[in-house]
Amino acid sequence: MGRANKVVLAYSGGVDTSVCIPYLKQEWGVEEVITLAADLGQGDELEPIREKALKSGASQSLVIDATQSFVKDYAFPSIQANALYENRYPLSTALARPLIAKLLVEAAAEYGADAVAHGCTGKGNDQVRFDVAIAALNPDLKVLVPAREWGMSREETIAYGERFGIPSPVKKSSPYSIDRNLLGRSIEAGPLEDPWTEALEEVFELTKAIADTPNEPEYVEIGFEKGIPVSLNGEMLNPIDLITQLNKKAGDHGFGRIDMMENRLVGIKSREIYEAPALLVLIHAHRDLESLTLTKDVTQYKRGIEETYSNLVYNGLWYSPLKGALDAFVHQTQERVSGTVRVKLFKGNAAIVGRQSSKTLYTPELATYGSDDKFDHRAAEGFIYVWGLPTRVWSQNLRT
């Protein structure tokens, strides 16, 4: 891969991305490095991160608040698709990658850079998500990945940075690798690399231990319009406030933890811990509302679409042709998915206990066994005869 003169680097303020700045300039001859830190609601103070990039040798340090877009353009479509990778992980971290890639490509165009860079290693999923998304948005843009090539250990990386004035971490480094944004946290490495070892309470921040949760349940009513969550307990909220408040409510009741063995795109199994209280509640509630408002065939067919959709997002294909086609299908199905879902939060559970919609397909006079029953029971005999005819013919054929 050819080198570049001006590079926009995805920047987190950590050791690896900080060391990327002098490494790109010293080892690869890059003349100018512009850093880009994306605020996705992770709660970090970004001004020190901006200043650290400049002290590490960046010519400019960009900080972009993209939280609103993150929720509206990435999380909400994923909720409409009930996206759960391997039927468990709601893609809280994976959803951030196509957005960061988009910000990198846009910044490269604005500042006249001929390449972008990131600090991913060669073992993870994020390198694929970044590289493929960038290629989809601008196939002519070079992507530089120093950490895939420098072959330095953690200690060597810190020592390299110190040579160029980048201070080593002051406090003892946590054994865990943690990524956080508004949608949740992902925790891996350290003791968690043993699948038999239980995750300690110290790894969790968004969800309380069951012993510390309230002894009374809390009910939350979530309002949806065309598959998009718009309200909590009857109060219309903007997307960021809705996620923030629901994270707090569900997390306080200990809901939202995932402990799973995950199949990475690169073929490695990894043990992952996730916290995503609001996102999990919203997907479960949304799916339930669909069961009230969508026809049987659409509901059942959509389940296969959802699995494919989840795999595409996890595997870094957010900007792919198939993902675009599935978006159109999902969008069409959401026209009638409006209503309210009632959720009971209690002791680590989020049980759906009620749902209502003006678009409901539930017909009480057809479903009831009471005196209001309007179903024509006599029609059942003819239906069963026709429905079971292929089975009857097959069975008779076996006897001949």
From TrEMBL:
Keywords: Amino-acid biosynthesis, Arginine biosynthesis, ATP-binding, Cytoplasm, Ligase, Nucleotide-binding. This is Argininosuccinate synthase. Its main location: cytoplasm. Pathway: Amino-acid biosynthesis; L-arginine biosynthesis; L-arginine from L-ornithine and carbamoyl phosphate: step 2/3. The keyword Nucleotide-binding applies. It is found in: Cytoplasm. CDD domains: ASS. L-aspartate binds at T121, N125, D126. The gene is argG. One of its GO terms (cellular component) is cytoplasm. Residues 6-167 form the Arginosuccinate synthase-like N-terminal domain. It comes from Phormidesmis priestleyi ULC007. One of its GO terms (biological process) is urea cycle. Homotetramer. Residues 176-394 form the Arginosuccinate synthase C-terminal domain. L-citrulline binds at Y89, N125, R129, S177, S186, E262, Y274.
